[in-house]
Automatic annotation (TrEMBL):
One Gene Ontology term from the biological process aspect of the record: regulation of DNA-templated transcription
Organism lineage: Bacteria, Pseudomonadati, Pseudomonadota, Gammaproteobacteria, Enterobacterales
Transcription regulation is among the record's keywords: yes
GO molecular function: ATP binding; sequence-specific DNA binding
Identification of the protein by name: Sigma-54-dependent Fis family transcriptional regulator
Cited InterPro entries: AAA+_ATPase, AAA_lid_NorR, GAF, GAF-like_dom_sf, Homeodomain-like_sf, HTH_Fis, P-loop_NTPase, PAS
Highest taxon of the lineage: Bacteria
Amino acid sequence: MKQQRLLSDESDAIFSLPDRAEADSLDALLWQSWQSFMQGEQPSTLRYSILQSWQRSQQQAIDPYSFIYTAPPAHELDAILEHNAELILVARSIMENLLAYNPDGHINLTDAQGVTLHFCGADLTPVGSILREEVLGTNCTARCLIEQRLVYVLSGENWKISLRKRRRQCAAAPVRDASGQLTGVLTLTATPENFNAHTLGTVQAAAEAIGQQLMLRRLLAEQQSILETLNEGVIVCDKQGRIKTLNRYARQIFSGLDPQGTSIDELLRPQGGSLLTMPFCNDRELQFMPEGLAPLSCLLSLMPAPDGGRVLSLRENQRIRAITRRVMGVSASYTFEMIRGHAPRMQQAIQKARASSRTDSTVLLSGESGTGKELFAQSIHNASPRQQEAFIALNCGALPRDLVQSELFGYADGAFTGSRRGGSAGKFEIADGGTLFLDEIGEMPLEAQTSLLRVLQESEVLRIGAAQPVKVNVRIIAATHCNLLDAVEKGAFRRDLYYRLNVISLEIPPLRDRREDIPELVNTFIQALCARLKRIPPVVAPDAMAGLQSWDWPGNVRELENVIERVVNLCEGLEITRAELPESLLNSAVNNVNEDRQPSLQNLERAHILQVIDEQQGNLRQSAQQLGISRTALYNKLNAWKIDYRALRKSAR
């Protein structure tokens, strides 16, 4: 009765195994069950799950009397073993420990498709053997693959006669991944005297240990992957300061140094104390002086590690400044191709500016307000080797006197009351590698001029309240609307700084000295504005263009652009007439012509030709006949004056 109860028990986790004395009688009973099954009967003393497996084996025409292990082709097996390399690596040591409790046994590991990946102990199942039920019939590994739970198979329950003759009992447990999916099967084969109620629990624990190790390794690999992809240096050291781990970014920062077994203080040589005794902090600015490398300024975050060590997070100030520049959008947008002007003085200025862009020498731009000094500065930067770096502009005249130095040079933590915690980088540090445009340099206070001179001479910046200077690589372009030499004579500007700035001097002509450029500028402003407004660009009538050219433009190009924007916004038709120009501009223009100066011969000729064209309603052939010149000569004159003859035809319609 005890044997019959055992053989009909379907709970593989709670059962009574036969002792050695019962093994022979149990084998005889299973042999009888086999004979009854082969005669077409369904033996009642056979476990139901085994009976079902025998039935499937019989339906699949698996020969129980022939026995040979089959394996995938060699190239496929190599790919399977490579794919499961981590599973094999983790399981190997656990399988060897399990074998210590079953020295005469055999332990094998298969993948989720029943292909043997590794074995230890008795040489029973070669690597590559396929143990699936449709290949080998009823066996312990195949049953675990199907039922995906802890199972056992007695020797007499195998389908193959050769497996029965081994007189070995088997227990198998599934190995699962982090998501609970079956990734392999661990099977223990042992003699009846070494196979007892504790065997299944041991196999189950071993399989779960493999799964846990796999999950732990995946978790560690995921964390390591995250650590490696961080765009900041991470260093982990033990409580003695010995470096344990560096991520990719930290290795790049300290490339050329060998961190293995090195104390973190010896490697980084921080200025300001030992990293082992420094209080835990977030984003503390610190300078490192590693031997053999250039000084490195970083933001340091220091946190405790679980084993009593420390975790350091380092972000280079240089990289932080680069991110700041991207966020702030500090880049130059103008190029020399965008500068409009064909007047000789303007072309000379452009040519000289292009030549200066090929060097790193300091440039001093002079010119009235509104002439386009920053446009030239941006164009020089964009034509220089520094074009991919930052372009920082600072108006020295727009800052309060007591803020100029902190804006330019920055300040250290606690430098003054109300200062930002951790300090702040100045414009020189933010512009490192790029160009710093100092507009209205003549308005800079004398005390700031002294500090600026030091930066230009030493290429290093000392923050307010800091002890150590910071090396910078910045190209300076300065601009002024006043006469700096006069300021030098009056004691308002340092003479040595003036000569240090005035390496390449470049004067930008006012608009009144290049009136021939006004038509092109006007048309450029109209086209750009109407593109933004999504409207058809109006045409400027000849008399209106003549009025624009007769004004002296004390505000230069900036004033002209503002006037054109006003006129275009108020214009309701497709033509801008003289009457639509600002009245103050026209009155002043008339006064300038009548009182201040006599019209030049060229201006009189230009006005007469435009009047004739207007009378001939834009017909250039008739206008040339009326003027007594060839049509080619008329075209040449209009082109020289930058007058669009097509616009004259349209405006006359």
